[in-house]
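Need tokens for this chain, all 304 residues.
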Amino acid sequence: MPRIAYFGPSGTFTEMALAKFENSGAFDGPVERVAAPSQGAALDLIRSGDVDGAVVPIESSVEGSIPATLDSLAIGPRLQIVAETELEVSFTIVARHGITLDQVRTLAAYPVAAAQVRQWVARNMPAARPFTSASNAAAAEDVAAGTADAAVSTALAGERLGLATLAAGVADHDQAITRFVLVTRPGVAPHATGADRTSIVLELPNEPGSLMRAFAEFATRGVDLTRIESRPTRTSMGTYRFYLDCVGHLDDPAVAETLKALHRTARVRFLGSWPAYSEVGTPPPSDEPAAEWLTQLRKGVADL
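Here are the structure tokens for all 304 residues:
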């Protein structure tokens, strides 16, 4: 039975994403779920050999990319993303029994969750003081421990801890979606499907035009960049890594040629090619017409 880590404790949206992977047949059979206290800890369990894979959040449609996940993928021994899924995210306000919304004075929340319900809380719980928790499920645990009056959490976490629900479906934005990825040790990428995503981390030389030249490698080959983000390397002021997602697969000639060109002048960390959960953009152009043309040239065919 494979051991799969997830950003815990039990009751987080990440555990729900792991369940969704299980139900979709991402694993050969049942898995042993292993809760980890952070995204980085979940990924480090793969590196240490304690688990076979990990599920972590990587991007929110409301708050953008998840920095803790990006940083953990960029440093240390390389890991590889092999699949993704998405969840529509809304929150549940849970509390100890007997407490009403107007009585809440301390509200526990994971920072990403707090940002997604800020307006709702201001309207409905104006007296509540924020209390930072380690995760959505940990916020519910803080309530159960008496550290906070209420929590921005999940229905699953509230049910498991026997807490009361003060409000459900809480979100400032309709159709808020979080994307989760399944990460393993490096291996052969899943087969190309024609609707794939490829992700890399790029470290460029500190010289004029290096970023423009990198982007040009994608543009000249018709490869659609869908995410461009920079994060500090934390080694010295003004040094950054670039996280890039593009449409296509490592086996697509245009994507492969782009990665080879980048590798000639920069440090490239390949994070994986895998089937995209939802539509991602314009697929890379087919190489077949150009390859056939070149084949005919080598055969000496006239009038091409």
